[in-house]
Amino acid sequence: MKKGGSNRKIFLFILEIVVLLAFFAQPAFAKAISSAELIEKCHFYDGKEVEFQGEVIGDVMRRGEYAWININDDSYSSKNVENGSKLKGYNTGQSVWCWANQVGFIKYKGDYKNSGDIIWVKGIFNRACPEHGGDMDIHAHQIRLVKQGQPISHPFKKERAAVALFLGVISAGLFLINKFLTQKRQQKREQPL
């Protein structure tokens, strides 16, 4: 067997594997752009397709065939304080305009009781959307669930309740002392000399 023939067979075998891997591979999401970057480089991204990922917060606001959703991508969107995240930074996110049928899968919206669904959005970024009063938004044409949210437990903490009760008793006591002293001063002023 010729050496060139075996090299060709190896090349064809590797090519077949690459083609099969490309065919069966799941499409990977490109790195999502942060809301901070969208704000800082709004002129650059204006009118361009972007990918954005974060926690759905607030309500899904349906407007006929369309819907508004708000997505936070701040440090709390991946791990909230109740689950061990430290307090840092501030809330950041983007408003997303999409077809109402694209958001039917959203189960949890981030609020006091729930950690919201984490979703991935692909759409056109508008620095000052002429359709929506000049607001910054993303007009989505693809939305996918990345991670489903969940309820957040807020266990009753006896220590905090005891401190609150103690401070309440002290406050009430100081209020009564102040009232008593004010009445005494008032009585002294009203007595004739």
Word description of this protein:
The protein is α+β, with helices and mostly antiparallel strands and 193 residues long. The chain folds into 2 domains: 35-151, OB fold (Dihydrolipoamide Acetyltransferase, E2P), CATH 2.40.50; 157-193. Helices cover 34% and strands 27% of the residues. It is built from 4 helices and 7 strands, in the order αααβββββββα. The strands form 2 sheets. The protein has a 5-stranded mixed β-barrel with strand order 1-2-3-6-5. A two-stranded antiparallel ribbon has the order 4-7. The longest helix is centred in the last third of the chain and has 33 residues, at 158-190. The protein is elongated and about 125 Å long.
Topology of this structure?
Elements: H1 3-24, H2 35-40, H3 42-45, E1 49-63, E2 66-72, E3 93-99, E4 114-115, E5 118-126, E6 137-147, E7 150-151, H4 158-190
Question: What shape does the CA trace take?
Answer: elongated
Largest sheet strand order: 1-2-3-6-5
- CATH architecture tag of the largest domain: Beta Barrel
CATH superfamily of the largest domain: Nucleic acid-binding proteins
Helix content: 25-40%
Structural Rg: 30 Å
Order of helices and strands: HHHEEEEEEEH
Average pLDDT score: 86
Name of the level-1 CATH class of the largest domain = Mainly Beta
The share of residues in extended strands comes to 25-35%
Q: What is the helix tally?
A: 4
Number of domains: 2
**Cα separation of the termini:** 131 Å
Total number of beta strands = 7
| Largest beta-sheet details | 5 strands, mixed, barrel
Class computed from helices, strands and strand pairing: alpha+beta
